[in-house]
Amino acid sequence: MADLTQKDLADRLLMSESLVGAYERAERIPTTAFLVDADGALGAQGVLRSCVELMEEEKYSPKFLNWKRTEADAASISAYECMVVPGLLQTPAYVRALYETRVPMYEPDEIDRHVQARLERQEVLDRRPKAIVSYVVEESVFQRPIGGEAVLKEQLRHVLDSVRARNHLTVQVMPTQRSVHAGLMGSLQLLSTREGRNLGYTAAHGGDTLISKPDEVNRLNDLFGALRAQALTPWESVELIERMAAKL
């Protein structure tokens, strides 16, 4: 395969020649999907595939790397978000705005790497077999103009389009005016694997925590159940997000 041109490889992988060239010149970071596909197309015998794990170690903290690998094949994914739109639903512009305003600041190449990693994770929404994905999100999250009003409006429309296009995805809004609220301790994430393993994940300034003890995960599942009961229904939530988007 040594005489394969950039155009030949691009045609085989159904992508643009310019993108293949950018990867080759190290102007852009290759996606994990590209490395896997290119390994087969080039007959690299696993050399490029072996880079995937190294790249993931660069993109994620050790604890979140374990979470991400489990998330990719999860049977169900649930989360309560009180600060930002859930990562699997973020638009490229919204993701970039998040990382560009981070304190302490990231270097430009670090921002590119993290944006790409976030967007790659979103592939889990459309893989088969489908994962059941459920979110409870604070109303204020959909009002916070991260990246500006245009970015926020695009983000709200993207959430609406995502929910309408996927019957395995639900988003419920937690109204700001709720006087009884089970989620005042902060955001949380939950997932269940097809083998019956249940995990929880929380992140704070003090560090991220991967939770695997059954009693602790059960407590978080109970908490998430209470949050869903206190939030608007999925249909009410769609109507509210539509109204917020219309005002922008």
Automatic annotation (TrEMBL):
UniProt-listed InterPro entries: Cro/C1-type_HTH, DUF5753, Lambda_DNA-bd_dom_sf
Domain HTH cro/C1-type: 2-48
GO molecular function terms attached to this record: DNA binding
Pfam family for this entry, one: HTH_3
PROSITE patterns to which the protein is assigned, alphabetical: HTH_CROC1
CDD domains named in the record: HTH_XRE
Protein name: Transcriptional regulator
Organism: Streptomyces lavendofoliae
